[in-house]
UniProtKB/TrEMBL annotation:
It is found in: Membrane. Residues 41-321 form the Amino acid transporter transmembrane domain. One of its GO terms (cellular component) is membrane. This is Amino acid transporter transmembrane domain-containing protein. InterPro entries: AA_transpt_TM (IPR013057). The keyword Methyltransferase does not apply.
Length: 332
């Protein structure tokens, strides 16, 4: 533990010196940039918490009731808690490796002022080039499938408001819009996106829970899950995707002024996410039961109201925020 603590202190010292030099150079312009910094240039523990919490849940929030219809209520709750805690432990281990890698490089006088450390670089520095290739392949695969899933999710959501265009056309439209996210420099510039994204997810989660409770149980509702092993496995995999987005953990830490504080941030963010996913998924599954087996998107079973339309629009915006978090500059 002592070497790790020394590494953390060295990193904090270097960052503090860089911040002090930057403040001296920009002191005269501080008032001019204060608003910009408040919205754009974040690196605090709160910024990291918002990034972690908003990055965990997006479109999957709408499919968790579908997973409950495959797993059953009890298994759905257990898997969420289990994967969430395992994900937090994984994030903690990644943070330890990041601190070790960065301390070694800074002892070699390597500067990270214009470079963002990524996960495959940590593997390269600690384990060698073979593991770097494995990490890079994982990142590419995660980004490819994650982006496709999120773009299809955008198209599926907007279709509930405007069905004049088919879902494939909406996918192309959102793909073109989200491609512009590569112009965002780094995770320091995600402060406003993280805040908005988490607010939108919070609204949608509680809308689902309250709307389902107000609707009540459908007549003759049946809760038969689990019935098939393949459905059980599919539902568990979907929940794993909720709490398995660790590909951006290193970038979030690198954006922090004091990355040693990341140790428990991911866990606290996960606990907050539980307050969104567990009530919403449980309430919708309680209300509609086995009907969800044929409706993977929870919006499709809830009545069309201005509250639902607001949730759809907010989830569309959040999907863009999610793509910004996941994709911008991850391969450069």
């Amino acid at each position: 533990m002592l070497p790790q603590k020394q590494a953390e202190e060295a990193i904090v010292s270097n960052i503090s010196e860089a911040d002090h030099e930057g403040k001296e150079d920009k002191e005269e312009d501080e008032s001019f940039f204060s608003i910009k910094n408040a919205l754009w240039h974040g690196g605090s523990a709160w910024d990291a918490w918002f990034s972690c919490a908003s990055n965990q849940v997006a479109q999957v929030l709408l499919t968790l009731p579908y997973s409950f219809s495959q797993l059953g209520m009890l298994s759905g709750i257990i898997f969420q808690i289990f994967y969430g805690l395992v994900g937090s432990w994984t994030a903690y281990l990644i943070s330890v490796l990041y601190i070790e890698y960065r301390s070694r490089k800074e002892k070699e006088n390597v500067s990270f002022k214009n470079h963002v450390i990524q996960w495959f670089e940590v593997l390269d520095g600690l384990l060698g080039p073979y593991w770097k290739a494995v990490g890079l392949a994982f990142n590419c695969t995660f980004l490819l499938f994650g982006s496709v899933i999120q773009l299809i999710a955008c198209a599926s959501n907007i279709y509930y408001i405007n069905d004049k265009l088919d879902k494939r056309t909406w996918t192309y439209i959102f793909g073109a819009c989200c491609a512009t996210t590569v112009f965002i420099p780094s995770f320091h510039n995600y402060r406003i996106w993280s805040f908005l994204g988490l607010g939108m997810t919070t609204y949608t989660a509680w809308y689902l829970a309250i709307a389902a409770l107000i609707h009540g149980q459908d007549e003759g509702v049946v809760h038969s899950a689990p019935t098939k092993l393949v459905l059980y496995f599919t539902g568990a995999t979907n929940i794993l995707y909720t709490f398995g987005g660790h590909a951006v953990t290193v970038e979030i830490m690198h954006a922090m002024w004091k990355p040693q504080k990341f140790k428990y941030i991911y866990l606290i963010a996960t606990l907050y996410v539980f307050t969104l996913t567990l009530p919403s998924a449980s309430a919708v599954y309680w209300a509609f039961g086995d009907q969800l087996l044929n409706h993977s998107n929870a919006f499709s079973l809830l009545p069309k109201t201005r509250w639902r339309d607001a949730a759809v629009i907010l989830m569309l915006i959040h999907q863009v925020c999610k793509l910004i978090h996941s994709n911008a500059f991850k391969l450069f």
